[in-house]
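Q: My collaborator sent me two sequences in one message, no labels, and asked for predicted structures for both. Can we handle them in order? The first one she listed is below.
A: Yes, handling them in the order given. First sequence, followed by its structure tokens:
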Amino acid sequence: MSENTFGSGQAGDNAFPDPATLTYEQARDELVETVKILELGQMSLDESLKYWERGEALAKRCEVLLDGASARVEQAIGGAESGTSES
């Protein structure tokens, strides 16, 4: 092996950051890239399944973050409405 060679060419189990640590934008951008990679269809079944599972985890992270944002907006609207109705 050459001294300029790094790694085995195979992604390890921890090659990607934990979706729970990603912001919405980071998860969404990685999900878009994951879909593009899957659409190329140039991987083995095992590789495709790993990307599919990663995509599912990223989509779930986006959903959780959007649900949280939605709840915050509803809370803010509810607070604003209760503040104006008391005036």
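Q: And the one she listed second?
A: Here it is, processed independently of the first:
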Amino acid sequence: METEVVSQILHMKDPTSNSTHKNIIDWFLGVVGLKPDENTQPPITNPPNLNCPKCTCGLALKHKRIVGGVETLVNEYPWMVALHYNNRFFCGASLINDKYVLTAAHCVNGFNKDRLSAVFLDHDRSNSYETTTFTRKIKSILRHKSYGQGGSYNNDIALLKLDQAVSLSDMTRPVCLPPTGRSFTGLNGIAVGWGATEQHGQTSAKLREVSVPIMSNSDCKNTGYKNRITDNMMCAGFNEGKKDSCQGDSGGPLHVINGNFHQVVGIVSWGEGCAQPNYPGVYTRVNRFITWIMANTKDSCYC
């Protein structure tokens, strides 16, 4: 069960303003994190001309949850992608369908797509024999056109179109997109990446995960960040520091578990140092960009 914490909610526009009284109540309970999640993932309708296979998003390849700044199981998160530039690792990303990976705009800002590549099924980047990886080149970079407007790292989101579709299976399963209209305040988020295990340290050779509580935006604005936090951002971490994402984790996912399904609610974006008191990790709030994501991935198959 996710841990509930007392915190003010992010005030967002009610998307069900024209719905019934019951739908309004359901939406409000969802925003404050009190409505129980279903153990099923709402299906996404794929265009009939794509002949998409049946598949399931967001199921990790394990039966036991191990979180808190530890190494993941090998290929535990089958949607996890290591981005390389000139054959060197630099950022994380998440597979969301058969043709696109989701990452942070700052990871690919000004980069040449011909030097970018996405590596799948990696775990220990120092061991080429541990897993059978495969690589896709990048056909196009779709960085949000409003990246950086209204504040540094605002709209920090990008899509990378792969040069060849990925076969969706248990080993290359996409992560689920989150529902709109929820703040996720008070739930535990799971950040995953190959980032440094300490401030100014080297990136980790092995994929790691950490569990951090998601804060409300009003609470985050009471930290050292003040008004640098926009509605397109999400904060997660402890007041005293302790656990955090770090350098090299950028672009990777922050998950919330809905039943058995992992939803990518955040993208590792920025922060002051790593695990510093009064400076939680800051993530792109993915459910603010669902319309943008779907509009730019109409040629792909979702699970």
